[in-house]
Design a protein that fits this description.
Blueprint: E1 16-22, E2 28-34, E3 43-45, E4 68-69, E5 75-81, H1 84-93, E6 95-100, E7 115-123, H2 126-131, E8 135-143, E9 155-162, E10 177-183, H3 188-199, E11 206-210, H4 223-238, E12 242-245, H5 248-254, E13 260-269, E14 275-285, H6 293-305, E15 313-320, H7 335-352, H8 357-362, H9 383-394, H10 396-412, H11 421-427, E16 431-441, E17 455-461, E18 467-470, H12 479-492, E19 499-502, H13 518-536, E20 544-550, H14 556-561, E21 579-589, E22 596-606, H15 613-633, H16 645-650, E23 662-666, H17 680-697, E24 703-704, H18 708-716
Helix pairs in contact: 3-4, 6-7, 7-17, 12-13, 15-17
């Protein structure tokens, strides 16, 4: 497979540059746009110039703002010209005239019609359980946004090319011209369909050439389609090649982030401290337009249900539209937010009962491996085995007991009014804690989009013995290509070097490269195709071509437990055999600086059939570092609807010396199916980290990112936990 290059490296001759004129308001009604007089070589494009639909495919998000302004930085117009510096000057002179309206930035006061999706689930009689409860434990958990910080800012290069549409026919209206778009995307066909409907073209007249995506963390599923539409509009109207690449600051301030969530969990306890009822309320902030709202909300709900027994439960969830930039996925579509809330809450319940949180969890797994709500797993959850694995690797049980004794000892030495920061500093005590948590991830999405979720891959065994694998799938590296080559070598007895991955306009739509679909769903299709070729190769002449397709699978049991939203069809396949992980995290806190130092991260992982152990370990370690960044390092938040220049300037990425030791052990089993693992650290590491800091500080922290100020306030005037 020819390695694609970065978008920044593509320079067609006679190129024009593109730049965005953005909304200064978070909410308002657009009235007019004042623009300086432009030289003949410069162009201004507004929504009125769009020949087709002013919408991104499978969403209500406009390509350019029409009558409404919905967030600060929303694209209102596009400027194109040969000199980028001049474009910036012209953009500064443009003035957006609009009638300002009161914006809504938080989920606590949603505007009318702002709820994009709802989820309501009941089991048993939760009201009766709470009425007879001997005590109630409540926690309000929040998760912040997270920046992707790609290897290069999002961008696209587009030009018109004279060629056939691919079927030997020419469109007289378009003079046989095909629009070529280069962009770093996880879903080339989404880009293609979006550009085609914006320009009012048939799909055959749009050719998408994926650029190098780098470490995308699921942030390039839909947003590159918007930027590609901007570049395509410029090229289509000016009839010249266009480079439309955001600046690093534009990308930081306006591209989608991991969405924030507010989750409250209440547990009704009986006289023995057992949970007899649970209420969960979830609100996710999806910003303007709410793309993938049903997917993100339902995955957040699944994470909030966890993998434990709940006899009486009431869950309500809402995905809310606000006036911040559109939010999106970050290595997962919401499971991590839900797991953080539930895992953190259950650790708090165990702490209040003075029980080891790991043992508390092990005693509450369903005996038969199935859950009363949520996914209908095809195999028993390996939760106890995973907890024991992470605990053995980290020496969790001894450390937890030791740190718990130290915590209780400090409580006994509290002077009247609490223990101050200086008291701890004078004693020279380094505070330590260890936490543990459990989570799972699926192998695909819950909801197919407008394309109905029918995806394919095509293999051809050529006369010279080489094998071509045609797919639109892209990835952050070519590791999957090496895995497939080894698989083909084993099944077809061909040289792995003779396997070529073909990704071009003629490749079938293999769907979005997210949610571990590459290594799970598509790998199974490659294996099936290789087996089919092996059956045919000695009775049919070469070349032999086999096409394998995957379609959404319905499950009455799934839909009985978790009925689909908005009348859509749920795809039960991706969550029937999820990947699993348990993580233990140990920290120490210096009571002078109040900056937690991570002593180690230990993970037990059930990834099914591990096709490449080196790749699996590397993926998990990268995700663990990102998960820890979300938990405490990435201190960014929208202020009055926007990320500030100061937040951009102060944003940093951990250096290699700051990365803690990460230890991984796989549970080896006899399954023949690989499972998704790349998102697992986000589902268990943050909760384990906050649990560890909570034990060290003897304080129940409930939010991420965990700020230094929060830790300082907890240590400034301590009160015993639970009082």
């Amino acid at each position: 497979m020819d390695k694609p290059c970065f978008v920044e490296d593509i320079y067609p001759p006679h190129t024009l540059y593109g730049i965005t004129v953005r909304s200064p308001l978070a909410r308002g009604r657009l009235q007019s746009l004042e623009c300086p007089k432009l030289p003949g070589s410069y162009s201004l494009i507004t929504a009125a110039d769009i020949p087709g639909k002013n919408r991104l495919e499978d969403s209500d998000m406009p390509i350019l703002a029409g009558e409404r302004l919905s967030y600060i930085g929303e694209p209102v117009a596009l400027l194109f010209g040969p000199d980028r510096n001049m474009l910036e000057e012209y953009a500064e002179q443009c003035k957006v005239i609009a009638e300002e309206e009161t914006p809504v930035f938080t989920v606590h006061a949603p505007a009318d019609g702002a709820v994009l999706a709802r989820r309501e689930i009941r089991a048993g009689d939760p009201e009766a359980a709470f009425a007879r409860a001997a005590g109630i434990v409540r926690g309000d958990y929040s998760t912040g946004i997270q920046e992707h910080w790609y290897a290069e800012p999002v961008g696209a290069v587009a030009w018109l090319e004279q060629e056939d549409a691919g079927d030997g026919k020419r469109d007289r209206k378009n003079s046989g011209k095909t629009l070529v778009v280069h962009t770093a995307t996880q879903w080339p066909f989404h880009v293609r369909r979006s550009v085609a409907q914006v320009l009012k073209l048939e799909n055959a007249y749009v050719r998408v050439e994926p650029a190098l995506v780098g470490l995308h963390m699921d942030g390039k599923i839909w947003y590159p389609s918007l930027i590609a539409c901007h570049a395509a509009l410029g090229s289509w109207i000016t009839k010249k090649p266009v480079r439309f690449i955001l600046t690093r600051e534009e990308d930081f301030r306006y591209s989608p982030k991991r969405n924030g969530a507010e989750i409250s969990v209440s547990s009704a306890l009986d006289g023995q401290g057992e949970i007899i009822g649970t209420e969960i309320h979830i609100t996710v902030n999806l910003g303007a337009y709410g793309i993938h709202s049903a997917e993100i909300l339902d995955q957040t709900c699944l994470g909030s249900l966890g993998v434990y027994r709940f006899d009486n439960l009431k869950l309500s969830g809402a995905a809310v539209r606000t006036n911040i930039p559109p939010q999106g996925p970050f290595s997962g579509f919401g499971l991590a937010q839900g797991f953080f809330a539930l895992e953190r809450h259950l650790s708090h319940v165990a702490d209040l009962r003075k029980q080891d949180p790991a043992e508390w969890r092990k005693n509450r797994f369903p005996g038969n491996g199935s859950l009363p709500l949520g996914p209908a797993f095809r195999e028993a959850a390996p939760g106890e085995q995973l907890l024991d694995t992470a605990a053995a690797m980290s020496d969790y049980y001894r450390k937890w007991a030791s740190y718990e004794l130290l915590r209780q000892s400090r409580r006994g030495r509290l002077p009247r009014g609490g223990l101050s920061r200086n008291n701890w500093a004078e004693k020279g005590e380094t505070l330590r804690g260890i936490g543990i948590a459990l989570g799972y991830q699926g192998n695909g999405l819950l909801y197919p989009g407008a394309d109905k979720g029918n995806y394919a891959i095509e293999l051809t065994l050529e006369k010279d013995g080489s094998l071509e694998i045609a797919t639109s799938m892209v990835g952050s590296g070519n590791d999957y290509g090496r895995v497939w080559a080894v698989m083909a070598q084993e099944i077809l007895s061909i040289d792995a070097g003779a396997v070529r991955i073909i990704n071009n306009a003629a490749s079938p739509d293999s769907g979005p490269a997210c949610a571990s679909r590459n290594i799970s769903v598509l790998t199974r299709l490659v294996e099936q195709a290789c087996l089919a070729i092996r059956k045919q190769r000695f009775r049919d002449p070469l070349p032999i071509t086999v096409r394998k397709t995957v379609r959404p699978q319905k499950s009455p049991q799934w839909e009985q437990r978790f009925p689909p939203l908005k009348g859509a069809a749920l795809d039960a396949a991706g969550f029937s055999r999820p990947g699993w992980a348990s993580a233990a995290v140990e920290v120490e806190v210096d009571p002078v600086e109040y900056i937690p130092r991570i002593r180690g991260v230990w993970m037990g992982v059930d990834g099914g059939k591990i096709l490449s152990e080196n790749r699996a370990r590397r993926s998990l370690k990268i995700s663990t570092v990102q998960a820890l960044g979300w938990a405490f390092r990435e201190q960014i938040a929208y202020i009055d609807g926007a990320l500030t220049h100061a937040q951009f300037s102060n944003y940093d990425i951990p250096s290699p010396g700051e990365i803690p030791p990460v230890h991984i052990d796989f549970i080896w089993n006899d399954t023949n199916e690989p499972k998704g693992i790349g998102e697992l650290p986000f589902c268990c590491v943050p909760a384990a980290y906050v649990h560890a800091v909570s034990q060290a500080m003897d304080h129940h922290f409930q939010s991420i990112p965990l700020r230094r100020e929060d830790i300082w306030e907890a240590g400034k005037l301590k009160k015993p936990e639970g009082q």
